[in-house]
Amino acid sequence: MARPRGGDSVSRKKGGAKGRASRARQVYIFTEGEVTEPEYIDIILKNGTLAKPGQSVQHHIENPNAEGKHRKPYGMVQDALRTLRKVEREAKAAGLDRDKDWNYPQVWVLFDRDDHPNIREARQLADKEGIRIAYSHPCFELWRLLHYANYTSSFGGVCGDANSRLRSRPGFAATYGRQVRTVTEQQSKHMREEQVLSKDGQRYKDAKKYSKAINNRVESTNPEKWDPYTDVWNFVEDGLLLSGY
């Protein structure tokens, strides 16, 4: 099972090469949402399956109290760059090698299309500097929706449409209480384990399969036009080192 948020910086644990090989990967995460994405991360790290035994992560939500431009894609990437510079210095001091060590630290930014400007510029800066991106169009609710059903039609860039379709899925409202029949958009921001977990891990497998299929249909080079699109599964597997949940 992956380890929860928190923990030491990459430079604090000693013990030579053996110590370096056994320490958890430190993953530093900037999220556009204040609630949904951090709660999702907590759920899957608590319940997920490590891809390789012994290779775990400690995650750090870097912008829990951020406001304004620090919640916008380009601003988050700029903030993430400062964090990346810091943790790379710590990794170097700890003797970690980007190309050789599985636990070399990573910095991720999770953001949506919504109606944000500078999406393309945010991705270009991230790619240039080595910051990892998980991107959803129109928003993270698409990724949640794909845990219930396949969906391939355009949302017209309207996140509220994706959220409405999510809230209307059979059984969704009941995850907030046995007698609950309807859930507001505000209430739905709070994640429930039953919305993404399944005993056989099939919900995650389906969501990944569906998202890869819709992503393969993208024709434009402009990410602002990728409707629908989500690659959150890359974050799950490449960032958090999970094979599923």
Question: How does this model look, in words?
Answer:
There is one protein chain. The protein is α/β, with parallel strands linked by helices and 245 residues long. It has one domain. It has 8 helices and 7 strands, in the order H-E-H-E-E-H-E-H-E-H-H-H-E-H-E. The protein has helices spanning 16-22, 36-47, 73-93, 119-129, 141-145, 159-167, 202-215, 232-239, and strands spanning 25-31, 49-50, 57-61, 106-112, 132-137, 229-230, 242-244. The strands form 2 sheets. Strands 3-1-4-5-6 form a 5-stranded mixed β-sheet. A two-stranded antiparallel ribbon has the order 2-7. Helix 4 links the parallel strand 4 (106-112) and strand 5 (132-137). The radius of gyration is 18 Å and the shape is globular. The termini are close together.
List keywords for this structure.
two-stranded antiparallel ribbon; alpha/beta; five-stranded mixed β-sheet; 245 residues; 7 strands; 8 helices
| Count of discrete domains | 1
Number of helices: 8
Q: What composes the largest sheet?
A: 5 strands, mixed
What overall form do the CA principal axes indicate? globular
The stretches of 5 or more residues where confidence is low (pLDDT under 50) are 11-15
| Class per helix and strand makeup | alpha/beta
- Count of beta strands: 7
The end-to-end span amounts to: 10 Å
Strand content: 5-15%
- Give the ordered list of helices and strands: HEHEEHEHEHHHEHE
Q: Radius of gyration in whole Å, from Cα?
A: 18 Å
Mean pLDDT: 93
How are the strands ordered across the major sheet?
A: 3-1-4-5-6
